[in-house]
Target: Imidazoleglycerol phosphate dehydratase HisB
Amino acid sequence: MENTTTIQPLLVTREDCAIMLSLSVRSIDYLIADKRLKTRRHGGSVRIPMSEVQRIARMDFIGTIRPTKPTSEAIAA
Model:
């Protein structure tokens, strides 16, 4: 009997994350820019921990994907 062990990656690319979450890469970039999705840098590339992908997948509602523009109150503070 052959052992068929699948290895899950610890870090995934933005493109793979988008596929897993059924979102566009731009939506992933917005989540990263809003600091709602933690990333790791590996050389010049961005990687997303699988724990973050799973966290976003478990959320019932992630809210608006596009980054919000800072309000005048936030700028004054």
Observations:
- Helices lie at 14-21, 25-33, 50-58, 72-76.
- The longest helix spans residues 25-33.
